[in-house]
């Protein structure tokens, strides 16, 4: 039991460390991109952290199999490099025992990955769509960036705001250029106001209410312009209806996806199943690949193992693309890849004579 807990703890700590490191690196890159979108006014700044949080399950789907695989290689590589595994073998701990222990942990991780892939990730993707749609519906004050020229959501005007009060959201020194083809005062107009704010009427349309300013209107081909001073002036910046964002299959619940018969839906379903299935299969491959001589160090076989992982993952992507194009029968799906990975893992384990003998004895005991 002590050996069981020790090996289990070593593998889990390594997997957790790899997962945290990879998640930190990737989420930092996504965070920079999201911040860039927010600084350009494409995304409200208030939604940055919410979008980042909803990205976590989507990124975890990619990182979980890799962290499980690399964690086993690093943990057992250190145990072999420090000759601890040699001592364990001398005390009767077989490599088949180590394999079973690793498979037990990988099955637990597969259940977690399955929950993330089949349920949490689609839910997070759908929530991200809804959040962005809500931001589109509330586009107005929330999307205005001080010191930047921006189009209104209905593309009828360009707005420049020098500053926005943090206390009450009041706009200071507002410039608006409008294209008013139906305006009685002219085809084009420029409005400058000292202050303003954004309000929504009962129909859902958003209006910018400006105060204490001037409006210059006229035809750009004519030198004649009308100048109107006003105490209060309103401009519509968003129509009542907001177009719904087009969903990808990644946002659909797995239960709904299973009932669809399109090639894209079938490929998405097989992909979601492939992620949790790959974890125990990769664990089966990682255990024999983690054997290193003390002279090699704990990272002795990390590079060839990673190349093998990249090959397997690339084949999964190719199979998904082939399923989407209808080049692979839906019944075959990605099962042939999983079976191939299982065969590779068993062959690597059976190459070690003592492991083969233990495995055969275990099979004989089962029959």
Radius of gyration: 30 Å
Strand order of the largest sheet: 1-2-3-4-5-6
Supply the number of structural domains. Answer: 2
Give the rounded overall mean pLDDT.
80
Overall SS class = alpha+beta
| Helix-strand topology string | HHHHEEEEEEHHHHH
Number of beta strands:
6
Helix coverage percent? 55-70%
Largest sheet, in brief, is:
6 strands, antiparallel
N- and C-termini, Cα separation: 26 Å
Taking pLDDT < 50 over at least 5 consecutive residues as the criterion, the unreliable ranges are none
Shape: elongated
Give the DSSP E fraction (strand runs of 2 or more residues): 15-25%
The number of helical segments is 9
Q: Mind explaining what this structure looks like?
A:
This protein has 367 residues and is an alpha+beta fold. It has two domains: 2-137 and 246-366, no CATH class; 144-238, no CATH class. It has helices at residues 2-39, 48-81, 84-90, 95-137, 254-258, 263-289, 302-324, 335-350, 353-366; strands at residues 150-151, 157-164, 171-179, 188-200, 206-218, 225-238. A six-stranded antiparallel β-sheet has the order 1-2-3-4-5-6, with no helix packed on it. Strand 1 and strand 2 form a beta hairpin. Helix 6 (263-289) packs antiparallel against helix 7 (302-324). The protein is elongated and about 95 Å long.
């Amino acid at each position: 039991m002590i050996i069981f807990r020790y090996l289990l703890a070593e593998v889990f700590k390594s997997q957790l460390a790899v997962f945290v490191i990879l998640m930190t690196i990737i989420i930092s890159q996504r965070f920079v991109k999201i911040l860039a979108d927010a600084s350009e006014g494409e995304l409200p700044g208030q939604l940055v952290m919410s979008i980042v949080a909803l990205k976590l399950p989507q990124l975890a789907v990619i990182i979980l199999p890799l962290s499980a695989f690399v964690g086993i290689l690093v943990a057992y590589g250190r145990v072999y490099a420090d000759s601890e595994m040699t001592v364990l073998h001398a005390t009767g701990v077989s490599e088949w025992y180590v394999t079973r222990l690793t498979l037990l942990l990988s099955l637990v991780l597969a259940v977690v990955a399955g929950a993330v892939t089949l349920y949490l990730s689609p839910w997070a993707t759908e929530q991200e769509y809804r959040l962005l749609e809500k931001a589109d519906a509330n586009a107005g004050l929330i999307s205005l960036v001080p010191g930047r020229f921006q189009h209104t959501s209905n593309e009828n005007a360009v707005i420049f705001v020098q500053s926005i009060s943090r206390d009450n959201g009041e706009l200071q020194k507002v410039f608006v250029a409008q294209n008013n083809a139906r305006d009685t005062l002219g085809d084009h107009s420029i409005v400058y106001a000292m202050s303003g704010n954004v309000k929504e009427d009962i129909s859902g349309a958003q209006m910018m209410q400006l105060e204490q300013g001037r409006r210059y209107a006229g035809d750009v081909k004519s030198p004649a312009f009308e100048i109107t001073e006003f105490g209060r002036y309103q401009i519509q910046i968003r129509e009542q209806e907001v177009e719904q964002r087009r969903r990808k299959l990644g946002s659909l619940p797995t239960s709904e996806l299973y009932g669809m018969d399109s090639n894209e839906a079938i490929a998405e379903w097989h992909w979601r199943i492939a992620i949790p299935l790959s974890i125990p299969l990769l664990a089966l491959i990682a255990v024999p690949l983690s054997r290193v001589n003390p002279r090699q160090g704990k990272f002795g076989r990390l590079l060839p193992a990673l190349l093998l992982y990249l090959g397997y993952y690339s084949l999964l992507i190719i199979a998904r693309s082939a399923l989407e194009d209808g080049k692979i029968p839906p019944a075959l799906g990605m099962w042939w890849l999983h079976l191939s990975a299982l065969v590779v893992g068993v062959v690597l384990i059976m190459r070690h004579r003592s492991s083969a003998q233990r495995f055969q004895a275990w099979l004989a005991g089962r029959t």
